[in-house]
C-alpha cells in the first residue's frame, strides 16, 4: 500500500508482467479530504464516464453525498486502476452552479420555470412543426456520454415516432470514422479486438492515438508490459513527441494529413517483402488484387517524401509490423479527424487482414472510441445508424425494425442515408430544420468554425432545446434549457471501446429538480402522445431496467447481441463483452475468431462507399463483390489535403487533448486538481519554428487561420517542425471568470480556427489539418505557458516548474491481492 501524486505521476506505480501472464491488480482509491474508508456508508458500482476505456469503479457515498472513488479489482478492463480524471472528476457533480430548474427564454432572457411549462413548450413546438413543416423540420443532436437505455429511447422516439432522419451524435466528431472503417472492412460496426490482446502482443502499433493521455489505464497496461520480461515493440505514428512516441521503438512523425500515404507505404513494404499471410487472405478476404494494384504506386522513397519522414524509419516500422507474430493495432483521432480519415483507418484494418492478425490472443485491431458511451450511440441508433446495426438500405432490416417497434415500415425514414451532424447544422443554417434538441454536448465549443456555429445557433427562427448539467456556451443560445441528472445520479449501462458492457448505478440524488435524461425523453414521448401502429404507447418502458430489456430484444440476433445480459448479471463482478447470448453467456472476447464476418449481403450493416469520394455502393455491387460475406480489402489513392500551407498561412494547425482536461471542461474545469494542472490554453511550437519567429516559452502568440484567431502562451515542445498544436478544451466559459467572452486578448477556443470540412466517407469533421500563421504578440513575463510538463506538452526549455498536484492529489494504491 502506498500513495502517489496522480497529477505529478498520472500513470501511478508499475506492476510489471510478462507476455501471456495476467495483468496484476492495483486498486486505486481516492477519498475526499477528511474522509476515511470507515466513514464510507456505501460503495456503488459504476465505470468511468470521462473517456471510452470503461474502467470499473465504485463511488463512495456518505450522508447522501459522493465522497470518493475506488477502482474495481475484479474488472477485466482496469483490474482496480483509476485514471486521474476519474479519481478526481466526480467532484464536478456537486458543483454549486449545477442547473437545478428548467429555464425558458422570456423577453430575450433565460428565466427559471417549472417542468410543465418547459416541457409543454417543447411539446407544443414539436407538434406545431409536425403539423406545418413535417418531421424533417426537427433534428436531434446527442452525445457519446449518456447511457444505452437513453440512446435507444431517443432513437425510438426520433426514428419510430416522429419519423425524422435528422438524428446524430457528437460521435460524428469522435468515432464516426471508427464505425465507417469497420463497416468498410468487415461489413459492420463492432470492435474486433480485446484489451487482453495487450497482454499477449509482441508488437503494438498506435496510429494517431495518444493513448498515454486519452486512455490512461490502457496505457498503464502497456507500460506494465514494457517494464516486464519480453516486452512488446511499439510503433507510434504522431507528429508530436507524445509519451507514446517517447516509449516507441520507432516513432514516425508525419506531416499532418498524410496518413493514407504513410499507410500505403507500410502496406507496400508488407507486400513487397512477402510478409502477407496468403492462406488467411485467400480464405477470408476479397479485394486483394485491387488493393495490391493501388499499393504499387507507394514505394517507400516516394512515401517518405510525401510524409516528410526518414525513409529508413518507414522501412524500420514496416519491418516491425511485417514480422510481428502477434500484432495489435490501435487507431484514434490522429487518423479519424485528419485528412482522408476513413481511407487511412481502413488501411490499418488491411494491415491486420494481410498479416492474418485477427481473432487470436495478441492479434487484432482496436478502432478506438473516445467517449464513454460512443459505442452505444452507434449501436442504439442515435447517431445516424439504425438500431442494432441494421442496414438502412436493406428493406428486410427496416421491416424487422418495424416489427420490433410495432410501427409501419414506411414510417421509419430510410429514403436516404441518415443525416450527419455537419449536414444538420447546414439544414439549421438554411432554415429547413426549425427545432434542434441538443442533449449532452456543447457544440458552441466543440464544432468547427465557431463563428459560423454561433450564427447558426443564434438564429431567431431556430427553436433550440439544450439538455445539460450546466449553463454551457451552447445553453446560452437555447429557448429551453432542461436540467439533467448525470452519471452517479441515475442508472444505466454503457459499453466501452472493447465491447465491455458495464452497469452504472445511481449513487446519490440529482440536485434540485434535475432529472435523468431517460425520464425526460419518456415524458416527452407521453406528452406528445407517440403511439405504435395499434394505438398503444410507442415507448412501453418506464425506467432504466425496463428500457434495457426492450433494447435487448431489439439487439437479439444482430451482431451487438445483448440478449444474454441482465442487470443482475452485470452487478458485482466484471463488465461483460457483447455479443452475450444464450450460446455465449459469459460474453465474447474477440470477434471473427473463426474467420466468419458480419459481412454477408443479407446481414451486413452497410454496402460500403468509395473511400475517396464517399459515393455509396449499390446493393448489387456489394453482392457481386462479396457474395459470401468475407472481409473486404479496400485500397485508396492519397490526394493532398484541401487546405495546404501557403505564404500567408505557412504552418499546419492540429488540435487535440491533454491528459488532465475532458473536452469543453464542463466537468474537469470545475475540479480543483485537474483544472490547476492545465488551467488555460497554450500553443505548442517546435524549437525550430520558435527560433525562426523569435518566440520563447511563455510569450503571448496569435495563431490565425482564414476563419479566425486565438491568442495563447507559447510552449516550446517536441512537436514536428512546421506544425502547431492547440488543445481544444478552452471555450470562453471559465470557472474563474464566469461566462461570457473571456479576456481582452481575443478568442481562445481552438475551433475558432478549424474549417467546415469533413471526411468523404465517414462525414467526420477534420479538426487536424488546417493551414495557419503564428506571430508574437508580446514577450512573456518570465512565467511559462500553463501547459502540463508531464505529457506531450513537456517543455524543451529548462527551468519550467514541473506539474504537480500536492497533498490534495494523493491516490492510494494497493498492489497484489
Ligand atoms: N484526458 C482526456 N482523455 C480523453 C478525452 C479528453 O478530452 N481528455 N477525450 C476522449 C475522447 S471523446 C476521445 S475521441 C479520445 C481522443 O484520443 P486521441 O485521439 O488519443 O487524442 P487527440 O489528442 O485528439 O489526438 C491524438 C493525436 O493525434 C495526433 N495527430 C494530429 N494530427 C495528426 C495527423 O495528421 N496524423 C497523425 N498520425 N496524428 C495526428 C496529435 O498530435 C495527437 O497526439 O480521448 C478520450 N480520452
Ligand atoms: N478542435 C477540436 N474539436 C474537437 C475535437 C478535437 O480533437 N479538436 N474533438 C471532438 C471530439 S472527439 C469530441 S467527442 C467532441 C466533444 O465535444 P462535446 O460533446 O461538446 O464536449 P463535452 O464538454 O464533453 O460536452 C458534453 C456536455 O454534456 C454535458 N453532460 C455530461 N453528462 C451529461 C448527462 O448525463 N446528461 C446530459 N444531458 N448532459 C450531460 C456536459 O456538461 C457537457 O456540456 O469534441 C470534438 N471537437
Ligand atoms: Mo471523442
TrEMBL record:
Residues 782-799 have a biased composition (Low complexity). PROSITE patterns: 4FE4S_MOW_BIS_MGD, MOLYBDOPTERIN_PROK_2. Residues 41-97 form the 4Fe-4S Mo/W bis-MGD-type domain. GO terms for molecular function: 4 iron, 4 sulfur cluster binding; metal ion binding; molybdopterin cofactor binding; oxidoreductase activity. InterPro entries: Asp_de-COase-like_dom_sf, CT_Nitrate-R-NapA-like, MoPterin_dinucl-bd_dom, Mopterin_OxRdtase, Mopterin_OxRdtase_4Fe-4S_dom, Mopterin_OxRdtase_prok_CS, Prok_molybdopt-oxidoreductase. Gene3D superfamilies: 2.40.40.20, 3.40.50.740, ADC-like domains, Dimethylsulfoxide Reductase, domain 2. Its cofactor is Mo-bis(molybdopterin guanine dinucleotide); [4Fe-4S] cluster. One of its GO terms (biological process) is nitrate assimilation. Keywords: 4Fe-4S, Iron, Iron-sulfur, Metal-binding, Molybdenum, Nitrate assimilation, Oxidoreductase. It comes from the Bacteria. The keyword Oxidoreductase applies. Residues 1-20, 779-799 are annotated as: Disordered. SMART domains: Molybdop_Fe4S4 (SM00926). Belongs to the prokaryotic molybdopterin-containing oxidoreductase family. NasA/NapA/NarB subfamily. This is Nitrate reductase. It comes from Cellulomonas fimi.
